[in-house]
Each structure stands twice: as C-alpha cells, then as structure tokens.
Amino acid sequence: MGLALSSNRTMVDCNRRLCDMFGASRELLVGQSFQLLYPSADEYERTGARIAPF
Q: What is the residue-level pLDDT of the chain in tens, covering all 54 positions?
C-alpha cells in the first residue's frame, strides 16, 4: 500500500510502495506538492476544493 505523510498538501515523507506506484524516487517526491501526482492542475484544484477542511 502506498502511503504518504503530508502537511498542507505537501509530501513530508512516503514509503517505497508509493514511489513504485508513481515511478519516482523518494528524493523526488518528498517536499513536493501532491499536484505532481495529478494528471492536471485543474484536477488537483477540484480535488482539493472537495476535500478541504471546513
């Protein structure tokens, strides 16, 4: 199972399975916005608006 620890939609840490799922190294993912994993900026914004805390 791919897991990521995040803060403000930025990856703070992740496991090897998440890296394997996205074909990226941990060094590439940690510190990056989750936007990197979405197919488009629009999809990233729509998802964020849907799951944002109230």
A: 999 999 989 999 999 999 999 999 999 999 999 999 999 999 999 998 888 765
How many Å apart are CA 25 and CA 6, to the nearest integer?
16
Q: How far apart are CA 36 and CA 20, in angstroms?
A: 15
Which domains are present in the chain?
4-51 (3.30.450.20)
State the pLDDT at residue 5: 97
Plot region of 44 (φ>0 → left; ψ -120 to 50 → alpha; else → beta): alpha
For the chain, report the end-to-end CA distance as a whole number of angstroms: 28
Asked if 14 contacts 4 with a C-beta cutoff of 8 angstroms, the reply is: yes
